[in-house]
Amino acid sequence: MKLIILITLHCLITLFLILLVIFQQSRGAEVGAAFGGGNTLLGPGGADKVAIRITTITAIIFMISTIVLVNVFSEKFQARKVEQIESKPFSQQN
């Protein structure tokens, strides 16, 4: 159950990070302008700074969740490997 929750959380973080990167304004093409574009609410360049900070925090959370998932899978794999070795008779282990 813990693993399913971790994988679901990781997938949600991944999708959120992808959406953040897609909808950020780039220097060449202004994708954000399609959704009502101006930065007047947060001041000049204010939305860009907030978007960069949110993207950075989300990327850090993504990296941490990836490391946690790798550790969980590694522990499960090692436990399964030990179970397989212990279940074999001694004569078949060599």
What is the strand and helix layout of this fold?
Layout: H1 2-23, H2 46-87
Overall description:
- There is one protein chain.
- With 94 residues, the chain is mostly helical.
- It has a domain at 2-24 and 46-87.
- The chain has 2 helices and no strands.
- The protein has helices spanning 2-23, 46-87.
- α1 packs antiparallel against α2.
- It is rod-shaped.
- The relative contact order is 0.12.
Record keyword descriptors for this entry.
94 residues; mainly alpha; 68% helix
In short:
Helix content is 68%, strand content 0%. The chain is an all-alpha fold and 94 residues long. The protein has a domain of 65 residues.
Give the mean pLDDT. Answer: 78
Q: Which spans have pLDDT < 50 for at least 5 consecutive residues?
A: none
State the helical fraction. 55-70%
Amino- and carboxy-terminal Cα gap:
36 Å
| Element string (H = helix, E = strand) | HH
- Coarse morphology: rod-shaped
Largest β sheet strand count, sense and barrel closure: none
Strand content is: under 5%
According to DSSP, the number of beta strands is 0
The radius of gyration is: 22 Å
Specify the structural class.
mainly alpha
How many helical stretches?
A: 2
